[in-house]
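Recap from last week: sequence in, structure out.
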Amino acid sequence: MRTNEPPVTGTAPQLAAPSRALPLSVLAGAAATFTVVTAELLPVGLLTSLAAGLGVSPGTAGLAVTLPGLVAALAAPLLPVAARTADRRTVLVGLLALLAAANVASALAPHLAVLLAARVLVGVAIGGVWAIVAGIAVRLVPGPAVGRATAFVFSGIAVASVVGVPAGTFLGELAGWRWAFGIAALLAAAVGLLLALALPPLPAERGTALRAVLGSARLPGVRAGLLVVLFLVAGHFAAYTYVRPVLERVDGLGAGLISGLLLAYGAAGIAGNFVGGALAPRDPRRTLLVISAVLAAGVLALLTAGGSLLLSAVLLLVWGLAYGGVSVSSQNWMAAAAPEAREPVSGLYVGVFNIAIALGALLGGRAADGFGADGALWLGGGLAAAALLVAAGSKRRTG
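Predicted C-alpha cells:
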C-alpha cells in the first residue's frame, strides 16, 4: 500500500496533524461501520419476539437477517456508480438518514412484508457505507497513519459483531423489539450528524462508471485478493455458524461458559483487527498468508481437541484473533492492488465479502446436515486452506 501518499486536495487542514492523533473524522468512520453492522445483526437477538409479534415462524423472520446481506452485496459495487460525482460526505450522511428511516419503518411494521421492505433499504445503506468508508482513511490522515486509521475504521465492524446480537437481545427483553429498532434509528441519525460535522468535504476523485468497476475486477492483484476474501470469509462462516454444537461436546463446558468463550472470541477478534491493521500496510499478502494458515490450522485442530476444555478455549481464541484481522488486511490488499481505483475496488470487495457470508452459512448448513458439526469444521478449514493457496500463488507484491 502507498503509505507515503499525500492527502487528497480539498481535505481539511487538521489532516496534517501528527499521525499519533487520529482526527474525529476517523472516529466518525468507525461509528458509521459500527452502526450499519449493528443494524444488520440486530434481528438476530430479536428473532423469537419478532416472529411472535408478526405472527410468522422464526425461520421466516430470519429473512430480516439474510435479505440485507444479499442486497448489500449488490449495492456495494453499484452505489458508487449511481452516486457518480456526488461529494462522498453528502452520500454518507444520506445513507445514514436512509438507515434511520428504514429502522423507523421496521419499528412500525404492521406485518412481515413491510419489515422486509425496510430491511432492503438497510441493505442499501450497509453496502453503500461499506463501499465508501472501507477506503476512506487515505483521504483523512497523512500517509504514515493510514494503516492505523484503517484499522480504527474497521474496528467498528469488529465491535458491532461482538455487541450487536447481545444489544438486540437486551433491548428486546427490556422494551420490546419495536423499541430496539427505534433506538437503532436514533443511533443512525446521531452518527449521520457526526459524519456531517466531522468529515471534511470529500469530492468524488472521479466519476465511477460501471466499466471501471468491471475493469478493476480484471486486475490480477484484485482478482487474487477477492478470491482470498471469498474463501476466508466463507470458510469462517461455514465453521463458526456451527461452532456451538462442537463446544457443547466438551466436558464441563456448560451454556454459561460457552457464552463467555464466545464473548472472549469476539474480544480476541477486536484485538486481531488492530494487529492486522499494524501489519497489513507493510505487506498485506504476507499478513493474509499468516491469517489463512492460522485459521485453517485452528479450525481443523478443533476437530482433534476432543474433550479438552483448555485446548478448545485456546483454539477458539486463536481463531478469533486471526479472523479479526481479515477485514482490515484484505482491504489493505485491495488498496495496494489498485491504488488509483480505491472506490470501485472497495465496492467489489464489500460485495464479495457479503456474498461470502451468505455462501459460507449456506454451505456450512449443508455440510452440518450431511456430516454433523464436524463436517462444517472440515469445510471451513478446507476453504481457509484454499485461501492460503491463492495468497501463496499470487505475486509477492500486490501494488
